[in-house]
Amino acid sequence: TAGATPPLGGLDGGFLLSPIFGGTIAENPTISINPIEGEDFTQRLLTPLREAKMTLLLRQGVDIDLLLRLMSNEIRMATDGSEVAYFNRPADQKGYPVFRQIVLHLSRLQDNNQLYVEPLVYDREWTLPLASLSAADFQSLETNYRVIVDRDKQTYTLQKRSVGHTVITNY
């Protein structure tokens, strides 16, 4: 917009009119929601969450009670040489209360910063005779394995660090 008005100090300053410039800006954000349909919807709904995603969510502070109720079908406990499954189904009148009690206990530990979620890391090791591989095979193994040669025993040991399943502990 543009316009003119008498000056604020009156007409004594020698100016008859003072210009006025102004403008307005309006911002109307547009948000589009595209629902997932058909095969894509079915694929996303039925694809189970991977263990790595669960670990990531737990490390970001998502409540373990919520996460296990959404992702778990059961909790298995081994006692006295036998295994018992407690199902995450309200229709299971005996197992469901135990399942809920376990996940609520884990949630309490998490709230007190006493719950740790880590991948299980272990070393695998193989001992082989020295004569079993050529020099080229030996060099290709060095890229993926730690190789320890024992010339006295005429053997070499291959070691590889592996990352296993996620372990939830409170020690």
Tell me what you see in this structure.
The structure is a single chain. The chain is an alpha+beta fold and 171 residues long. Among the domains are: 41-114, no CATH class; 119-163. The chain contains five helices and seven strands. It has helices spanning 38-46, 51-59, 64-71, 95-111, 135-142; strands spanning 2-5, 18-21, 74-79, 82-87, 116-129, 146-150, 155-169. A three-stranded antiparallel beta sheet has the order 5-7-6. A hairpin with a 2-residue loop joins β3 (74-79) and β4. The longest helix is centred in the middle third of the chain and has 17 residues, at 95-111. It is elongated and about 110 Å long. The mean pLDDT is 83.
Summarize the main sheet.
3 strands, antiparallel
The counted number of beta strands is: 7
Let me know the average pLDDT: 83
Which blocks of ≥5 consecutive residues have pLDDT under 50?
none
Helix content: 25-40%
How much is the radius of gyration in Å?
34 Å
Spatial order of the strands forming the largest sheet: 5-7-6
The outline comes out as elongated
Distance between the amino and carboxyl termini: 70 Å
Helical region count? 5
| H-E string | EEHHHEEHEHEE
Structural class: alpha+beta
Strand content: 25-35%
